[in-house]
């Protein structure tokens, strides 16, 4: 079976790596010359809105999915009118606008941070009076890794933030002094069956995910699954859905969804019965879902910025190194390591030297 993937970054690369044992072949569409998934399949190098390229993509594959979440509604619709596309264009676009995404959560009874749509400096001033400070100003569309955001801590910062971001539609969110951040990775098959990975505890710095550790019997597991199920069923979702939450006052507050495999699920390659990448492909290809249970304890640490000390990392016990074949650049995710152990205590002991080493090179 030939799977078409819109986007050819590291998520596409890891999807292909998971698909090889299932004898799946891959065609990627991506405008980048150095698309890191390209060596693992065929690469149609073109923009996501190029109709000729999209047509070539559709005739080359049996079924399609995406690893880039900002494919336009028009392009997704173009593909879906020709071949099966999972998740659907409606599911893809549900999370593309932060305001509409929050409205969807609210309709489904899922709590969200207090927020307001912003389209003028005066509107921003007024919203700050209502929501208070600190607050987070974000572009409604296209942000990732904390890009297109400004944390506002005093009135004096409003004008500069507006100057920087105000050319686009914005949203202001109350700053949540969260106890921790977690994500729920869910997978839904074409027949509606769902499976959930254990909630993942995530640590971000400068808006970028640094470490992700699957939890054991988290008290919020059921709540996370419930919210992910509500969204997935509403969208008739097929594939892996990632749902990011803040934990505040011991309850979940929805941050955002990603309609694709997710950085906070990379540990599942070594750490779960069936990885998020294989499970996404199973759902897209119409196969039964695989198990989401843990195989021991694991943790993922992102490699960001400078070329990492690969040999030093590989020499550490329990470490699995994943490099994406991307050119190192400040703030860029160029790989990750997963640390595995039989038990949680052992995991923490093995993780400490990995974090020390990675922090030294992180940029
Ligand atoms: P991703 O790379 O996950 O798609 P993104 O650019 O879409 O990220 P968010 O998930 O909105 O951005 O924010 C990135 C991080 O910034 C969050 O994980 C959290 O640590 C912090 N953050 C965002 N919004 C808030 C908020 N309202 N209150 C407190 N912290 C926040
Ligand atoms: Mg996001
Ligand atoms: Mg996020």
From TrEMBL:
NCBIfam families xrefs: PRK06019.1-2, PRK06019.1-5, purK
PANTHER family: PHOSPHORIBOSYLAMINOIMIDAZOLE CARBOXYLASE, PURINE BIOSYNTHESIS PROTEIN 6/7, PUR6/7
Pfam families: ATP-grasp, PurK_C, RS_preATP-grasp-like
UniProt keywords, alphabetically: ATP-binding, Ligase, Nucleotide-binding, Purine biosynthesis
Biological process per Gene Ontology, one example term: 'de novo' IMP biosynthetic process
Start and end residues of each ATP-grasp domain: 102-285
Any one GO molecular-function label of the UniProt entry: phosphoribosylaminoimidazole carboxylase activity
Species this chain originates from: Stagnimonas aquatica
Pathway terms, separated by semicolons: Purine metabolism; IMP biosynthesis via de novo pathway; 5-amino-1-(5-phospho-D-ribosyl)imidazole-4-carboxylate from 5-amino-1-(5-phospho-D-ribosyl)imidazole (N5-CAIR route): step 1/2
Purpose of the protein: Catalyzes the ATP-dependent conversion of 5-aminoimidazole ribonucleotide (AIR) and HCO(3)(-) to N5-carboxyaminoimidazole ribonucleotide (N5-CAIR). Catalyzes the ATP-dependent conversion of 5-aminoimidazole ribonucleotide (AIR) and HCO(3)- to N5-carboxyaminoimidazole ribonucleotide (N5-CAIR).
Enzyme Commission number(s) of this protein: 6.3.4.18
InterPro entries attached to this UniProt entry: ATP-grasp, ATP-grasp_carboxylate-amine, ATP_grasp_subdomain_1, PreATP-grasp_dom_sf, PurK, PurK_C, PurT/PurK_preATP-grasp, Rudment_hybrid_motif
Gene Ontology CC annotations of this record: cytosol
Catalytic reaction(s) noted: 5-amino-1-(5-phospho-beta-D-ribosyl)imidazole + hydrogencarbonate + ATP = 5-carboxyamino-1-(5-phospho-D-ribosyl)imidazole + ADP + phosphate + 2 H(+)
Amino acids binding ATP: 98, 138, 143-149, 173-176, 181, 204, 255-256
Gene designation: purK
Subunit and interaction comment: Homodimer.
Family to which this protein belongs: Belongs to the PurK/PurT family.
The protein's name in its UniProt record: N5-carboxyaminoimidazole ribonucleotide synthase
HAMAP family found in the cross-reference section: PurK (MF_01928)
